[in-house]
Amino acid sequence: MLILLPPSEGKAAPSRGAALDLSSLSLPELEPARREVLDALVTLCQDDRDKAAAVLGLSAGQLDLVDRNAGLETAPTARADRIYTGVVYDALDVATLSTAAKRRAATRLAVASSLFGVVRVGDRIPSYRLSGDASLPGLGPVAAHWRTHLDRPMTAAVGNGLLVDLRSGMYAGFWRPGPDLAKRVATVRVLHEQGGVRKVVSHFNKATKGRIVRALLEDGADPRTPAALAATLERLGWSVEVGEPTKSGTQLDVVVAEL
């Protein structure tokens, strides 16, 4: 089972640690593509702070993030699960997982990244700012860049297991599993039900996804189909509705009444 998470917009900035080594990251075949994005981002941020802020969608009060990007080559790194922050990662809380669950996290979790394409939680990366809808001078839209590079390594990473795709729409556009994987792709949507009305609420969605991933890692189950994943989640206490299979996978709706 491979669980694919979205990144976080906000990121922790380590104060010390080794500099970035692209050759050390998981999915090493992505190194040339990662180098292209890194070079384009660093060059933009080193050459013109104001232009970089505009391209990256940052305000005048966020120029420190431009400076952070400008120094990515030598910035300190930390494990990806310590760099990414926010609701999903707070709920997942990798640091407090049991020893067995941490071992599973190392092999079962991956994170979509505008800068690196995809990383594993144990990969050492610097804090950066680059949204999934950005377009970099000399490179173009980062989403289009990753669409041309991710299919083969991600298909290999899924292997014969189940892909649990928890990415947001923006990052889902980086790579869409082919129809040959569809029977083994489960996307998860969280619906907040109140007074008989269901709707997607961002905070509920993110927090519940983090808790689902944590529970799966602690439980140790390794479902191989969307239906088996739904059954596992039901056993773990969630209410799950399974959609009809499509050429892109099967959607599971997790219905929650409270956070």
From TrEMBL:
It holds the Pfam family H2O2_YaaD. InterPro entries: YaaA (IPR005583). One of its GO terms (cellular component) is cytosol. GO terms for biological process: response to hydroperoxide. This is Peroxide stress protein YaaA.
